[in-house]
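Here is one such protein, fold included:

. . .
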Amino acid sequence: MMEQQSVPEQAAAGKSHGGLGGSFKVSVYELENFQGKKCDFSAECPNLTESLLEKVGSIQVESGPWLAFERCAFRGEQFVLEKGDYPRWDAWSNSHHSDSLLSLRPLHIDSPEHKIHLFENPGYGGRKMEIVDDDVPSLWAHGFQDRVASIRVINGTWVGYEQANCKGEQFVFEKGEYPRWDSWTNSRRTDALSSLRPIKVDGGGVGEMQQEGWTDGSLGRCSISTSIRSDFTTATSAPAAPDLGRAGRTPCDR
């Protein structure tokens, strides 16, 4: 077996991303289970295959969060990498469409507070739903039935999912405006958005899964509170449950 070899950390390519001022470090391995050649990164890399790696087999995130992409130059399906270990490609991919991961960058977190507005129609028209700080494992339960057509992120960074309970393809929403569904997906495989959660960091800017309240009801295992507001529905609070305890796991995992 080839001995692990580390290459110098990559320099930033003209753009800086910061998780509330924190540092970023991720280790990328060519083989599964953290074996083979190893590259350490503290800044974005538009082409991992130019860093002496033929492919990406496993990942360890020391500090982040990071956003990885299926193709070079930050294109294709997106994969959110929070603090923890990812021993195989199916540990970072929810959709399992592809085992390819060819570029990555630090994921910008602009604020410890999170607020997002979802709209039923393109161009911010139709019914509106405001979410503050909490996970929504099922937009269907709040009347949207995956018909989200435009989004405004007021603050914080969010990740949406193609399916309920944080499953399927991921879509990252940083602070800004998204007037149509094709403004938030690189892969263009689907226009469905069925669940959503904020990406949170601790005081040192280290992104990792936040475990708060949980429910085992029809909404799935996610925290829901009255801070979710809309013009057509009211959410209810959920009881607490034990810590699931696996690094790199999302709050909506069962």
